[in-house]
Design brief:
heterodimer; A: two-stranded antiparallel ribbon; 47% helix; B: mainly alpha; 2 strands
Chain lengths: 140, 134
């Protein structure tokens, strides 16, 4: 029964979007995590989405879900600040701030939560249709 | 004269099958609304219905357990959508609003098919009971 596949696909969408919300939360929470070396500094993380073509072929389904291929760290340069009085400053008096763009992250969060909602509504509509199918032929 | 259940419900059940396929395709589009490079697809209902009416029984028979299950589903009716906005920056052509509307419309038509089927079943029940209630 392929109505279940619709539910499956909607749930892959939900889990992918929740990974995206997760990384966004982590990025915003760490936006001000200062450290004293380039390597130890937090770098913005973003998930990479891809269509689940392989599983769609195996299940002989018409639509394909979404999967998270991995999470990549942003390669943007970090903000290096000269602040000798800071407790985390290195021997030259520099501190390293993450390359998180808070405005970008907020926009990303809105997009992710909207997409999550869309997938929930999809599953909900499918459920209602399913119920109608189950009631087929009942009553007088 | 035998009662042909296929004649009674056949058309609507096939229409419902096509509607379910459409639902799957649209839900795939919506799940991939943020996937870079994903191209939105849609089902041509007319073509899908034609092929569903023509080749109902094309499943291959398995004579050995190692044979593949050859359930044939024609993919010919699935086509890429032409987006209104050609370049979104990441090669994704899903238009969420359009897809949501398409899903809604498809769902309504699915429910219409259910309604028709319900009517047919009711009629058949009435005929079987000879017009008596109960």
């Amino acid at each position: 029964m392929s109505l279940f596949r619709v539910m499956d696909i909607a749930s892959t969408g939900m889990s992918a979007e929740s990974v995206r919300l997760n990384t966004t939360a982590s990025n915003i929470a760490n936006a001000n995590s200062v450290s004293s070396s380039y390597d130890a500094t937090y770098k913005a993380r973003h998930p990479v989405f891809a269509a689940e073509m392989q599983r769609a072929t195996e299940a002989q389904s018409q639509g394909s879900g979404v999967q998270v291929l991995g999470i990549v760290e942003s390669q943007k340069p970090l903000q290096i600040e000269y602040s000798p009085g800071h407790p985390m400053a290195d021997s030259n008096g520099y501190i390293y701030k993450p390359n998180v763009n808070v405005v970008e992250e907020m926009a990303d969060m809105m997009s992710a939560s909207k997409s999550y909602e869309t997938n929930v509504q999809l599953a909900d509509t499918t459920k209602r249709i399913f119920r109608r199918v189950l009631q087929l032929g009942q009553g007088q | 004269m035998a009662i042909s259940l296929d004649k009674l419900t056949g058309f609507h059940s096939r229409a419902m099958q096509v509607r379910t396929d459409t639902m799957e395709v649209i839900s795939g589009n919506l799940a991939n609304a943020n996937t870079p490079g994903y191209k939105a697809r849609g089902v041509d209902f007319q073509k899908a219905m034609q092929s569903a009416n023509q080749d109902r029984q094309q499943n291959m028979t398995r004579t050995h357990e190692k044979h593949f299950e050859g359930a044939m589903q024609s993919q010919a009716s699935i086509e890429f959508r032409v987006p209104l906005q050609p370049d979104t920056g990441d090669g994704n052509t899903v238009e969420v609003q359009a897809e949501r509307n398409a899903f809604l419309e498809n769902g309504m038509r699915y429910q219409a098919s259910i309604q028709f089927l319900n009517g047919k079943i009711k009629g058949m029940k009435k005929a079987l009971a000879g017009g008596q209630s109960g």
